[in-house]
Write a structure and sequence with these properties.
about 50% helix; about 250 residues; alpha/beta; five-stranded mixed β-sheet; Spore Coat Polysaccharide Biosynthesis Protein SpsA, Chain A; 2 domains
Amino acid sequence: SRDRTPGLLAARQGIRVLRHERPRGYGAALKTGIRAARHPWIVVIDADGTYPASAVPRLLDGCASFDVIVGARAGRNAHDSWPRALVKELFRVFAQSITGASIPDLNSGLRAFRREVAERYFDLLPDGFSFTTTTTVAAIADGLAVRFTPIDYLPRVGRSKVRPIPDTLRIGRQVLRLGIRFAPLRTAAWVAGTCALMFALSSAWHAATSGPTSVDVGYLVAGGTALALGAYGEGRVRRRPLQTERGT
């Protein structure tokens, strides 16, 4: 952080401040903190005032029965502008389709998890803003016990550091990567469905103009190839029984 956060934290007793020599990203900061943690449970919370710290005890209530507990945002402040809400909903629906579970909040910045859970997925966890999305999808897809507990979402203090286009593309790439790793056939079905839609649109356009072309057939071949690769990958994926619960 380039603001006064490190100095303000260092002035408080009982807080150990860890710093990178250069900015490395949200996820990199969390991974450094997790590696340095001394206790079995980790709680992460964004420092923009949107997540109430008073909700942490409620998240940890009954934590012995779970591996990950996510604070699912609620309230009027939880609603985004329609372009951002549309993209987030698309990611959420895709994540639900590859995990087979309901995911009320895919990337909440308030969550608690066992330290070994994060360490288990360090090879998947990115240095950017996809950290929370990755832990949610990976834990559910891998059959860990995940609970979603509703929390209030408050107005933001300051400005967001999220860059809409590049960070959205990175998150999309990461979600696709998770789908290929944990549910290759379901992910391939999404690709095949997209190819089928493109085939229908392309065929309709060419039928009304120049007539069918090899491009139309290419969409079908691409979709079929994706399904074949997905079926092959599915046979190599080891899945454990899904175990999720939504808190009340």
